[in-house]
Amino acid sequence: MPSHSALPLALTQGDPAGIGPDITLAAWLRRGELDLPPFLFLGDARILAARALQLGLTVPLQAADPAAACDVFQDALPVLQIDAGISVNAGEPQVATAKGTITAIEMAVSLSMSGRTSAVVTNPIAKSVLYDAGFGFPGHTEFLADLATRATGKPIMPVMLLAGPKLRAIPVTIHIPLKDVPQALTSDLIVETCRITDHDLRSRFGIAKPRLAVAGLNPHAGENGALGKEDDEIVRPAIDTLRAEGIDAFGPLPADTMFHDEARRRYDVAICMYHDQALIPAKALGFDDSVNVTLGLPFVRTSPDHGTAFGIAGKGIAKEDSLVAALRLANEISGKTGSNR
Ligand SMILES: NC(=O)C1=CN([C@@H]2O[C@H](COP(=O)(O)OP(=O)(O)OC[C@H]3O[C@@H](n4cnc5c(N)ncnc54)[C@H](O)[C@@H]3O)[C@@H](O)[C@H]2O)C=CC1
Ligand SMILES: NCC(=O)COP(=O)(O)O
């Protein structure tokens, strides 16, 4: 039986035309069966109500602030109202909703940093919709780090972790075009990513001495330089530095052979060089139950591993499993030592 924080989780609305409303409603309906930690929805109650009607679900909604949310949660889905100012059809994203989507994220961070909610759980955003509205960050991960940097006055580097029952995987470079990866990949970036990972796996995840398997960038980790020099010139020196600090990092490993069952038993986290090198195995091995966690922040942030799935929004087929896993993981790790190093 999990124990729940006395504070609610702050759950952002995400893109209101996506499946965020569907999976939020579905998760709340299963709160008793799954003994879910209480959450406070930050978004427009009218959008939730319209989606419940469309899906044929009976979900009472109640306006609540963080202090009231836990008491409300058993009987109604608590909502901290953020007006969308526009009506929304499932599956039809609109740039005009971006303001509310971003406000929900900002409020969740502010509430969590001031101790009024226990953690931030984000519903998926459509990055291109936000870009069209002038949003200057590649995704949540970078935006959350910027909010934390501004709030603390200290530079904060975020690390994206995909955490599932079969695999934890981290992309060192995150939301950048593949052609820019070799230029962006530096030994310093790998070292700092691994330091944050090692710290947070100990403090948040209770792993006493995390084993970090570091992937190479090139096929066969460069094949002694014949298939690319980055593995020997960038990745290997980073691993040497980490090992000298006492961090159990090893590699560079050929990425094609580090994700099969037996290989995964040898490490606690795979450190990958670019987005798809980490997220393809993570989603292939656990699309329904993996969680996107941002390490390095002074608060906990989790998210389902999937996106807005506009094609199935409002159709009653979106699975809430990854959101449920994100809510549970946020509750579990928010009780642990903070991420500040
Ligand atoms: N954390 C976040 O905010 C994330 C946002 N995105 C954004 O989502 C948008 C759409 O991205 P896609 O690449 O299409 O990925 P997607 O995850 O939205 O959809 C990929 C496929 O999986 C299915 N799917 C996704 N979630 C599902 C669920 N809960 N239940 C059943 N089926 C599900 C979809 O129907 C689709 O066939 C993009 O704008 C992307 O930037 C993508 C990943 C994470
Ligand atoms: N593919 C993962 C993803 O896009 C999630 O990014 P973020 O919005 O959590 O930064």
From TrEMBL:
**Keyword set includes Magnesium:** yes
Q: Which Gene3D superfamilies match?
A: Isopropylmalate Dehydrogenase
Q: Name the EC number(s).
A: 1.1.1.262
UniProt GO molecular function? 4-hydroxythreonine-4-phosphate dehydrogenase activity; cobalt ion binding; magnesium ion binding; NAD binding; zinc ion binding
Q: What binding details are noted for the cofactor?
A: Binds 1 divalent metal cation per subunit. Can use ions such as Zn(2+), Mg(2+) or Co(2+).
Cellular compartment(s): Cytoplasm
Q: What is this protein called?
A: 4-hydroxythreonine-4-phosphate dehydrogenase
What gene makes this protein?
A: pdxA
